[in-house]
Design a protein that fits this description.
The chain is built from 7 helices and 17 strands. It is an alpha+beta fold. The protein has one domain: ApbE-like domains (T-fold). The strands form 5 sheets. It has an 8-stranded antiparallel β-sheet. Strands 3-5-4 form a 3-stranded antiparallel β-sheet. It has a two-stranded antiparallel ribbon with strand order 8-9. The longest helix has 19 residues.
């Protein structure tokens, strides 16, 4: 059965898309996706004043009661930090603010004045205390959380699974090009276009390639899309927690396939931070990946397919 119905809308500061294998399932799929993403935003947003995450960041070291959804998202972020040796770390919120990414990205863009940046290593994920029984989170005074490397993948996985379970249709959810699939895939799998910017397709002439996935997730991290600061002061949204500064641009784009979108997102981000050693790291983890250098040269590892005519 081929995918027959799709819709897109703006959410979480990016494009949210759902595709289902039964056109009758689309209205319910869209409703579930909108509802699920609103819940994630209320739990995990760094920019809306009524979110659980902002409450934690503004608590000045006090224990803060939060929703079970934020606790679930934080558990994924802390597991990611442990598994990557701190290459992906949720305590980079202050560094993101210092780089100028302190509000919704549509308000950040543009060259603007050159900023004086305070470069300080992230405090580290071990400073975060989660008490699931009490439903509380505590971070030290001055520490700010950011779940940008994990919450979007978590949201895609959660929504795809909920849609497939509720409708019985195969489902693909894409959040800014980070993709989760659930249920029965179409024959031959879900065909996905992999490129620097999820808004560009083959017809746009952007460099990329099509791959097919039947389960799990696929995510792309890039230093080319969410940029600001202008030529004299270039910035992007991926922070190296070890330095508290933007990651070196060894790779323009890294795409990773994994058992979930959350894991794919974690490792694509970690690869950008890892730099030259990223191909070996991904190969050792058995994660198919496509890494693109700033000049466009492509490195494929762990079974990522070579292009065919």
């Amino acid at each position: 059965m081929a995918p027959t119905a799709t819709t897109s809308f703006t959410a979480l500061g990016t494009t949210a898309t759902v595709v289902v294998t039964d056109d009758a399932a689309l209205p319910e799929a869209e409703r579930l996706l909108r509802t699920g993403l609103d819940a994630i935003d209320r739990a995990c947003s760094r920019f809306r004043e009524d979110s659980d995450l902002v409450a934690v960041n503004h608590a000045r070291g006090a224990e803060t009661s939060v929703s079970p959804l934020l606790i679930a998202a934080l558990r994924i972020a802390l597991r990611a930090a442990e598994r990557t040796g701190g290459l992906v770390d949720p305590t980079v919120g202050r560094a993101m603010d210092d780089l100028g990414y302190d509000r919704d990205f549509r308000l950040v863009g543009g060259a603007g004045p050159r900023l004086a940046v305070r470069v300080v290593p992230a405090p580290g994920w071990r400073t975060v205390r989660v008490d699931e029984a009490a439903g509380t989170v505590t971070v030290p005074r001055g520490v700010a959380l950011d779940l940008g490397a994990t919450a979007k993948g978590f949201a895609a996985d959660r929504s795809a699974e909920e849609i497939a379970r509720a409708t019985g249709a195969g489902a693909l959810v894409s959040l800014g090009g980070d993709i989760a699939v659930a249920g029965d895939a179409p024959g031959g799998g879900w065909t996905v276009w992999v490129t620097d910017d999820h808004r560009d397709g083959p017809a746009d002439g952007a460099p990329g390639e099509a791959v097919a996935i039947a389960g799990g997730g696929l995510a792309t991290s890039s230093t080319t899309v969410r940029r600001w600061g202008g030529p004299a002061d270039p910035r992007h949204h991926i922070v190296d927690p070890r330095r508290g500064a933007r990651a070196a641009e060894v790779w323009r784009t890294v795409s990773v396939a994994a058992g979930s979108c959350a894991d794919a997102n974690v490792w694509s981000t970690a690869a950008i931070v890892r730099g030259e050693e990223a191909p070996d790291t991904l190969a050792a983890a058995g994660l198919p990946a496509r890494l693109v250098r700033p000049d466009g040269r492509v490195v494929r590892v762990a079974g990522w397919p070579e292009p065919v005519a």
